[in-house]
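Recap quiz, item 2
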Amino acid sequence: MQPAEPARAGPSPDRSHPLDVRVLCLGNDLLADDALGFRVARALRREPGIRGRGSVDIVETPESGFALLDHIQGVRRLVVVDTVVTGRAAPGTIYVIEDHEEPEDWEAAPGTSAHYVGLFEALRAGRAMSLPVAEEVVILAVEAADVVSVGGCMTEAVEASLPAVVSQVRALLGK
Amino acid sequence: MSDQHEGLENSWREGARRAGATYARRRISIDPVTRLEGHGKIDIFLDQAGEVERAYFQVPELRGFEKFVQGRPAEEMPQITSRICGVCPTAHHMAATKALDHLYRVEPTPTARKIRELVYSAFMTEDHALHFYFLGGPDFVVGPTAPAAERNVLGVIGVVGAEVGKRVIAMRRRLREEVISAIGGKVIHPVLGLPGGVAKRITPELQKQIREVADEAVEFGKFTLQLFRDVVLKNEEYVGLITSDDFTHRTYYMGLVDDENRVNFYDGGIRVVSPEGQEVTTFAAADYLDWVAEHVEPWSYVKFCYLKPVGWRGFADGTDSGIYAVAPLARLNVSEGMATPLAQEAYEEFFETLGGKPVHHTLANHWARVVELLYAAERLKELADDPDLTDPDVRTLPTEVPTEGIGVVEAPRGTLFHHYWTDERGVVEKANLIVATQNNSARIAMSVDKAAKGLISGGEISDGILNMVEMAFRAYDPCHACASHSLPGSMPLLLRVRGPDGGVVERLRRDSDGNVSRERP
């Protein structure tokens, strides 16, 4: 059997997003620098200007790959906060990746996963199936130093990046 | 390209010359630059002639788990272990819960046991669906010989159609939300299991909801099996690949079976069969240390499991080598059938087509997974229909003083052991986990080795090595990083050729568009 053309345009996607913006914080609070996403979510909830805004949703989850499909739907704009280990920048470095850059223009972005699909693939698959996935995606990724120590604290450099990440999310939400 | 090949070959010759007698090996690393679920690193050691001496599959390891759990109440283990693993939290939650039963020497009530198995069946259905369609799909639904750029999730959707893709996603969502979460709390943070039972009873309304989902799941399982027949089995090329020697190892197999030696994911005896298909033993979870031993290699922190009574004979298959496999193919090999009718038919078709038991073809794992998906859905339905499901007696209170507890389940990726030692208050002093992929690690290493040997010769590295090596380990559905998700989430595969001084002489990179580029620093 010859594979068919990858599905690109299906029926018109459902654009009825009940929410305007979701901040999707990925991470794991048991794994050192990987706690960053959860810490950002917590800090954002304390921000007076954000709390109570009906159109903004803050979600934190340790899930990945296709499980993220549940979180990238039903919202117009998605701001993703996560850690990344490229080894090409100092820990604490913040990358801002716009959706239209994915994935070709981002050097650290990827080929086909050996095993699981990632956020970008979940987004593309969602669009290919005409699911109501976010129309705009911005990713704030922080270079991490340690994401494998169970119960470890965040390293100093990543801890120090926290206020800047929160403030960048705020700025994005203000757009 | 030919200049590059020549350059590469020259580098090798130069490396071999400089290495001399005391440095007979060079090393190639296939190393993802970011971590992700199931990410691995492949090291290929070459001899002086540029031939593969041995290729190894390595995985990152979480550090500090033992220290982290020391001093915590054992009751927290179902939560802690499921939080560490973002891939199969339900499997860790259930293995931990069963270890607590054993720790406190308490049996769950019949209804509690049914509720646990029901949740577990829903989990196995949705996890197997995820792997078959989206993770293994690029190899089998799109096809192993399709251009690399199409061997991805979009390619799968292109073949099966957007509507089928939507159906898979909707099915998984219903199973996760209307069954697993409705009974056990968030999928990612389950709070269902307690020593001696479960935290929540099932109301008649909830049972009705579960029955509806279960009906849909059985239809979904039937549909998936038919799709496998239509897309894979009707294609002789695929069947030829499944049965090719490149993806075949004659090892032992291990898996949980019920009283009648049928596949069971939640409980039973751990059965082992030989490469000839003869039963070696069926042991109780509590005796696992008599059967499972771990071999350590100096080049890796991965511990390679093997059958203790058979012994470690290196990375070799055959009856004399204690290497064994777990996961769907192993479970079908160790069993004498499936406990549900449709899955039993699918089981018989599987072995008839592939020439009887045991099947040693690694790529048959994808088919075995479909058989198991159907079983999980049918078992979910049986349990959902059980009139006792709404019985309020869902907990036996523990009264014994705890010392040591062992729990085992079949995770989607194979047998999962949890073992805790506690003081008399139930505070953890020591913990040992053997995750599914660790059981498979020696056989995975053998598969990667075989793929590398087939593709590297005389110092020449084929562009296809990245995909072929991936296929060799993807069939196992390997999972190591019990919490990885970091961006970008998918892996640029990098293969580095190192000279004897450790410097990189050439890089191969496979990018998102599937193209392989070569670069010499």
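The radius of gyration of chain A is 16 Å.
Chain A touches chain B through 66 residues (CB under 8 Å).
End of item.
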